[in-house]
């Protein structure tokens, strides 16, 4: 279960070529770096870049979203104090939510709750598992076409032992549902998140 | 001069060749001691430009910005620092900065004062010692708070009476508190020679602190130890539960309102040991089989400013009647019968008052009534009168009615950093009406306490807790002042040392205030002075702790020649604790060892003696293994304790005094406890019913456990004190609907 999210930064498919304003250039290059970042150090560098962009572009939720996403991932990777990293991620996510509350941000909040839970599962399960599921349900309600809540759920399940209700049996239908959504999914903005398709494909391949 | 100019010219050419003025900002970030800081975010405020420091604390970035700007250095755990820069001028194409960051005192990094205590359930700190789940899954503990706590160092394995006997202290020297309110009868009433269970289920509490010494000035009237229990706030979800077991039946519900701001719940349980004893071949001679009825209710509501009001009430009755062979005669029996009624109420209010002030207020009210009737009986279980005072005195009636009322208020003010001051007051009123045969005594005690305490965090690595407590008990009619001091020093990334000192007072138990002779006893507070030092190393999954202590007892109660507080004693020892969830996969274990050296001259002891409830060496090994494929957890607890001394202290008439007529040592104590938890619906995501089966056996190896000896009045007959039931078998099925608590068990495997 601790391995859960380490993989999730797969390909960042970018369609940002058409625009070349200052924001667009910076986002495009930082997203590219994000896609190439392989370790905690390079992720930390990218995270700070998103934060710097976010602090200038007060009306855009995307840079805060990516900063929060990376902080959550750093927490999963235990790159520093996982608890404090998750708290910082939550702070960034809340800043993004203040700009626009949407399905993608609920997904990131769910992941942050999972990160908090993993610090001390035995004592935190009750609280943070409920919170994580709450945000996943919220994400589905906010945008029923978003494949990422199902991706996260499928990923949670594939990393949970079969005897405990996880494994392929529960993960596969979720991954298939996500994959179907990926086919239709069109991001509203060039910098909106598009990640996750490879992840569910891997789950489907593994479980087939 | 020439060589000096060349680089400048080159630099000038270089910058001039660019269409935009470019500035390179470089620098170094260190802490106040000059150690480089890695991973510090460097931002040119208001722009996208910036970078991060490398492992040598260096950074460099290039910017095309112009004019007056601010460079900020920021990293978790340190105060943010900013520097003004002027960019875009040819003379200033290279800017070098040095940031010195001050480390913030933060809750996650700072040392906490831990001398003397085992804390669990603090959500901010992950190192948990004994959570509620641990208590349910400690083999042989039968989900009893006290039995689980006894696997930690400091507590003696006393099986013939209830209570936590900590570091040479009597059971009554440990007080239990729920949300700051003292609980005077935390155990069910029982007959002599049997330790009763605690009244409170582990699941009522989200956290607990077991302090074996040197604890805070907020708590008083406990000479040796406090067990601080913190009740849960709101439940996660609504649920209905039921339990069907070999000894009890129970049902209850817990409801959370839709807005998740309030909850209420109630439970009822009925225990009857008749079916259990029907299956046993060897059984104690119960003429009234132990029966318990308990009902509890709770109500909790969140207040507008983030505070909480909680009410908890529990009502219980229990009864039992047991015959034991009379020790002073051949064929006679002592038929002991007990009926107990207990009602405990606790209402607490936690509130944020603004400006960093917090209030913790509470009111509790409890009544406890023991009706004891003992009869001397012949071989046919008929009441007899022999005509010998020593035997006829065994037939008696005792009716003990007590009430307890407590008011308490603690104000807390948060200062800068983690510094906090607390102050408050406690008022307890205890009324006792004791009727022994035809003799009645009434005792009233009004107790007032004022206390103040400061948590001082000098740095992340050094903290102190300084406090004091002043108390007045109307039974004693004088004030006492109890200073407390504890220090903590960080010695490594996960390690710290703590030391504590404190004076602790406790009013003697009520029965010593009863006027037996013409002279009313003039008693003082019992007094203990604690000195202790410990070292803890703790990571997420492992905890190592070693603690050494010295305690001095003064003003202990002596009962000869007259009741006085001229007793004294000492206790010293070393304790070790090791818990490890890491080394073996899916396997959790802890080891505790206590060394105790203690002697006292108190009660009727004719000289300084090692008390009969103490032993020098106690060892516990607790193991927990959950096998996912079987959906079953297997828990074993092995306890070993060296023998305890026992004495026959006899009175002689000429000259009138007590003498040590006999003494000895009990055999060593061994206990292997086992429990199994089976969760059949585990992992069925849509299961509506959550089921846990529990099988438990105490003393699996059927060892003979001897807690001491009773002597006949003439000293000729000596009878070993054994548990009334050598082994206890339990099987139960616990059901709940509404919350999938199987998730609880999953955690063990994460």
Automatic annotation (TrEMBL), chain A:
Keywords (A to Z) from UniProt: Signal
Signal sequence bounds: 1-18
Highest taxon above the source species: Bacteria
Protein name per the record: Uncharacterized protein
Species in which this protein is naturally found: Hydrotalea sandarakina
Record lineage: Bacteria, Pseudomonadati, Bacteroidota, Chitinophagia, Chitinophagales
From TrEMBL, chain B:
Keyword Ligase: no
UniProt keyword terms in alphabetical order: Receptor, Signal
Signal peptide range: 1-21
Pfam families to which the protein is assigned, alphabetical: CarbopepD_reg_2 (PF13715)
SUPFAM superfamilies xref list: Carboxypeptidase regulatory domain-like (SSF49464), Porins (SSF56935)
Keyword Protein transport: no
Entry-linked InterPro entries: CarboxyPept-like_regulatory
UniProt-recorded name of the protein: TonB-dependent receptor-like protein
Source species: Hydrotalea sandarakina
């Amino acid at each position: 279960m601790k391995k859960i999210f380490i993989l999730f930064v797969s390909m960042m498919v970018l369609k940002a070529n058409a625009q070349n304003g200052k924001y667009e250039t910076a986002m495009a290059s930082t997203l590219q770096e994000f896609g190439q970042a392989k370790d905690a150090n390079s992720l930390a560098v990218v995270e700070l870049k998103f934060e710097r962009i976010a602090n200038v572009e007060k009306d855009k939720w995307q840079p805060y979203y990516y900063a929060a996403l990376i902080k959550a991932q750093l927490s999963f990777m235990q790159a520093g104090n996982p608890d404090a990293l998750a708290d910082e991620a939550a702070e960034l996510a809340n800043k993004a939510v203040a700009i626009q509350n949407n399905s993608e941000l609920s997904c990131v909040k769910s992941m942050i709750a999972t990160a908090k839970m993993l610090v001390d599962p035995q004592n935190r399960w009750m609280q943070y598992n409920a919170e994580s599921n709450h945000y996943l349900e919220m994400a589905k309600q906010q945008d029923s076409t978003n494949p990422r809540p199902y991706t996260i759920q499928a990923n949670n399940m594939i990393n949970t032992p079969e005897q405990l209700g996880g494994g392929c049996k529960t993960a596969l239908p979720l991954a298939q549902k996500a994959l179907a959504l990926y086919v239709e999914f069109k991001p509203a903005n060039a910098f909106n998140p598009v990640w996750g398709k490879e992840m569910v494909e891997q789950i489907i391949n593994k479980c087939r | 001069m020439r060589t000096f100019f060349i680089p400048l010219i080159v630099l000038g050419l270089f910058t001039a060749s660019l269409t935009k003025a470019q500035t390179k900002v470089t620098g170094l970030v260190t802490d106040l001691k000059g150690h480089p800081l890695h991973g510090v975010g460097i931002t040119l405020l208001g722009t996208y430009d910036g970078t991060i420091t490398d492992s040598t604390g260096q950074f460099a970035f290039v910017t095309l910005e112009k004019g007056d700007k601010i460079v900020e250095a920021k990293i978790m755990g340190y105060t943010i620092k900013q520097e003004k820069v002027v960019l875009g001028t040819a003379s200033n194409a290279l800017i070098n900065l040095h940031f010195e960051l001050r480390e913030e005192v933060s809750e996650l990094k700072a040392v906490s004062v831990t001398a003397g205590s085992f804390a669990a359930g603090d959500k901010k700190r992950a190192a948990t010692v004994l959570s509620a789940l641990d208590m349910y899954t400690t083999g042989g503990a039968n989900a009893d708070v006290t039995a689980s706590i006894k696997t930690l160092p400091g507590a003696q394995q006393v099986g013939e009476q209830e209570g936590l006997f900590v570091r040479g202290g009597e059971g009554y020297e440990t007080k239990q508190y729920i949300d700051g309110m003292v609980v005077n009868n935390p155990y069910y009433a029982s007959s002599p020679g049997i330790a009763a269970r605690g009244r409170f289920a582990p699941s009522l509490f989200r956290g607990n602190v077991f302090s074996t010494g040197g604890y805070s000035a907020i708590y008083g009237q406990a000479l040796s130890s406090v067990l601080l229990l913190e009740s849960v706030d709101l439940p996660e979800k609504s649920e209905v539960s039921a339990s069907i077991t070999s000894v009890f039946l129970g049902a209850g519900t817990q409801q959370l309102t839709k807005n998740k701001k309030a909850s209420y719940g109630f439970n009822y349980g009925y225990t009857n040991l008749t079916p259990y004893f029907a299956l046993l071949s060897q059984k104690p001679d119960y003429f009234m089989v132990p029966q318990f009825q308990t009902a509890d209710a709770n109500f909790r509501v969140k207040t507008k400013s983030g505070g909480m009001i909680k009410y908890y009430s529990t009502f219980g009755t229990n009864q039992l009647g047991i015959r034991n062979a009379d020790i002073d005669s051949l064929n006679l029996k002592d038929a002991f019968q007990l009926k107990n009624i207990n009602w405990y109420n606790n209402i607490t209010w936690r509130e944020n008052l603004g400006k960093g002030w917090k209030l913790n207020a509470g009111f509790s009210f409890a009544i406890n009534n023991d009706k004891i009737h003992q009869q001397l009986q012949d071989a046919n279980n008929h009441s007899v009168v022999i005509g010998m005072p020593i035997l006829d005195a065994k037939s008696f009636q005792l009716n003990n009615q007590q009430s307890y009322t407590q008011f308490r208020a603690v104000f807390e003010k948060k200062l800068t950093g983690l510094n906090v001051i607390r102050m408050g007051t406690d008022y307890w009123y205890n009324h006792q009406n004791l009727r022994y045969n035809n003799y009645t005594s009434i005792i009233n005690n009004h107790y007032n306490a004022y206390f103040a305490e400061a948590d001082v965090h000098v740095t992340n690595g050094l903290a102190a807790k300084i406090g004091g407590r002043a108390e007045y008990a109307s039974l004693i009619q004088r004030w006492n002042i109890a200073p407390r001091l504890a220090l903590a020093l960080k010695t490594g990334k996960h390690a710290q040392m703590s030391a504590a000192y404190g004076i602790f007072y406790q009013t003697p138990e009520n029965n010593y205030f009863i006027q037996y002779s013409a002279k009313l006893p003039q008693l003082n507070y019992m007094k203990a002075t604690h000195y202790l030092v410990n070292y803890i190393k703790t990571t997420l999954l492992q905890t190592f702790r070693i603690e050494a202590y010295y305690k001095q007892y003064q003003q202990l109660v002596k009962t000869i020649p007259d009741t006085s507080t001229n007793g004294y004693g000492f206790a010293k020892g070393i304790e070790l604790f090791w818990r490890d969830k890491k080394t073996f996969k899916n396997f959790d274990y802890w080891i505790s060892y206590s060394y105790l050296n203690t002697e006292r001259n108190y009660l009727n002891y004719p000289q300084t003696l090692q008390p009969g409830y103490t032993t020098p060496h106690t060892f516990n090994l607790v193991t927990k293994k959950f096998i996912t494929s079987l959906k079953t957890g297997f828990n074993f607890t092995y306890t070993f304790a060296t023998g305890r001394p026992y004495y026959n202290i006899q009175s002689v008439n000429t000259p009138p005094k007590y003498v040590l007529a006999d003494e000895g040592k009990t055999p060593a104590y061994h206990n292997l406890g086992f429990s199994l938890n089976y969760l059949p619906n585990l992992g069925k995501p849509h299961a509506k019913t959550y089921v846990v089966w529990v099988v438990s056996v105490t003393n699996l190896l059927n060892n003979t456990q001897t807690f001491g000896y009773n002597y006949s009045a003439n000293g000729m007959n000596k009878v070993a004190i054994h548990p009334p039931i050598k082994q206890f078998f339990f099987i139960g099925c616990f059901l709940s609907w509404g919350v999938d608590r199987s998730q609880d068990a999953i955690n063990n495997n994460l």
